[in-house]
Amino acid sequence: MATRIRPSSKRCAVIGGSGFLGRHLVEKLLDKGYTVSVFDIRQSYELPGVTFHQGDLCDKLGLLTALRDVSLVFHCASPAPASDNKALFERVNIQGTKTVIEACTEAGVQKMVLTSSASVVFEGTDIKNGSEELPYAKKPIDYYTQTKIEQEKLVLKACNKDRGFLTVAIRPHGIFGPRDPQLVPILVDTARRGKMKFIIGDGSNLVDFTYVENVVHGHILAAEFLRPESPICGKAYHITNDEPVRFWDFMSDMLVGLGYAAPRYHLPYFLVYGLALLLWLLSVLLRPLVAFKPTFTPMRVALAGTHHFYSVSKAKQDMGYKPLVSLKDGIKRTVESYPHLRHGV
Ligand SMILES: NC(=O)C1=CN([C@@H]2O[C@H](COP(=O)(O)OP(=O)(O)OC[C@H]3O[C@@H](n4cnc5c(N)ncnc54)[C@H](OP(=O)(O)O)[C@@H]3O)[C@@H](O)[C@H]2O)C=CC1
Ligand SMILES: CC(C)CCC[C@@H](C)[C@H]1CC[C@H]2C3=C(CC[C@]12C)[C@@]1(C)CCC(=O)C[C@@H]1CC3
Q: Domain named 3-beta hydroxysteroid dehydrogenase/isomerase: which ranges (predicted)?
C-alpha cells in the first residue's frame, strides 16, 4: 500500500498574499525558511521562493492547484472594507471561505490560520481591554464586519483533531505600516482636501493600532503553536501592539510626521455620527443616479470617536506573544515609507 507522503511543514500557502498584510507575511515566511505559494486575485510583486497562483478563492479547482503539497495555509484575503459591497463581502468572505476550507481538507492541508478582525465584537460603543470572551457583535458596524464574523465562525468550527485539520483565528486591530493601502492614504487624502481639521468628540478615546510586523509575528506564532495538544486549536486571539493610544494622537503623529497640521477643533460625536449616517443613506439611495463615497462613513466615525482596545493576555499566555515593534518605532517607519505622501510633494 502506498504511504501518503506528508507535505513538508515548511511549505505553506498565503491566500491574499498580494495584499498589504499578506505580502509582509510572505516576506517574513521566506526569511524563516518557508517556501510559499501565493494565491490571490492579483499578482502585485515577484520574489524568489514564491510561486504565484492568480485566481478567485471561490474557485475550488484553482485553489487545489495552489494547495498541492502544502501543509499550512494562511487565509488573509478579503475585499477592502471601503468597497462597501454587501454581495461581494458575502461571496468572498463567507462562500469563499467555505470553499477554502473544503479545498484545504481535500488537499490534505493540516493547519489553517485565518486573519479575522478584533472588530467582530465591536458594535460602535466603547470596548476597554476587551477579551476574547466578549460575544460576537449582534449589530456589527457594517457588512464587512458582519461577514468577518461568519467567516471566523466557519473556520473555528472546521477545526477537527480527529481528521487532522487544525484551525486558529488571529484578530488584529487597525493594522498600519509601509505599503498599507488604507489608513495612511485615506488620512492624507482627507487632509489634502482640508477635512482633517476636526477631532470627533473630546479626543480622549483610546484605540489599538497594530504595526504590521507584530500582526505577522502573531500569525507565525499561531501557525507554529497549532498542534493537536495545544490550547489554541479552534480559538480566536487578539493581536495588537498592546499600547492603546488616543485615536487622535495617533492620527496627529502620522499627519505631523508627513508635514500636515494636526486636527484641532472639536465636534460633538453624536452630531458627526448623525450626519455620517444621513450621508451614507443618501449615497445608497442615490447610487443608481450618482456615485459618491463619503469620507466620514458611520463606521469610520464610530471607530474615531469611541474607545476600542483589546487585551492580548490570551496570546501572551498560550503562545508567548509579545509585540516586536513599539508604536513609536512603527509610526516612524511608516512615515518614512511614504515620501510621496508628504505635504507639498
Ligand atoms: N487592514 C486592517 O486594519 C485590518 C485587516 N484585517 C484583515 O486582514 C486581512 C488582510 O487585510 P489587508 O492586507 O489590509 O487587505 P488587502 O486588501 O491589502 O489584502 C487582501 C488581498 O486579498 C485579495 N482578494 C480579495 N478578494 C479576493 C478573492 N476573491 N480571491 C483571492 N484574493 C482576493 C485582495 O485583492 P484586491 O486588492 O484586488 O481586492 C488583496 O490582494 C483581511 O482579511 C482583513 O479583513 C483585520 C483587521 C484589521
Ligand atoms: C477620516 C478619518 C476620520 C479616519 C481616517 C483613518 C481611517 C481610514 C482608519 C482609522 C481606523 C482604521 C480601521 C480600519 C480601516 C481604516 C481605518 C477606518 C478597519 C476597518 C480595517 C478592517 C478591520 O477589520 C478593522 C479596522 C479598524 C480600524
A: 13-264
Distance 76 CA to ligand 1 centre (A): 6
| 135 neighbors 315 (Cβ within 8 angstroms) | no
Q: Reply yes or no on whether the pLDDT at 165 is more than 90.
A: yes
CB of 156 within 8 A of CB of 235? yes
Q: What is the pLDDT of residues 72-130, one digit of tens each?
A: 999 999 999 988 899 999 999 999 999 999 999 999 999 999 999 999 999 999 999 99
Element housing 218 (H / E) = helix 212-225
Confidence (pLDDT) at 9: 67
Indicate the Cα dihedral angle 100, 105, 109, 115, nearest 10°.
30
Selection from 276, 332, 338, 340 nearest residue 303 by Cα = 276
Please give the pLDDT value at position 294.
86
**Which residues is 14 bridged to in the sheet?**
38, 74
Q: Reply yes or no on whether 260 is catalytic.
A: no
Pocket of ligand 1 (CB under 6 A): 16, 18-22, 40-42, 56-58, 76-80, 92, 96, 115, 117, 148, 172, 174-175, 181-182
- Mean pLDDT throughout 261-271? 95
C-alpha cell at 284: 445608497
**Which of these, 237, 226, 162, lies nearest to 9 by C-alpha position?**
226
* Residue nearest (by alpha carbon) to ligand 2 atom 2: 187
- How much is the pLDDT for 8? 55
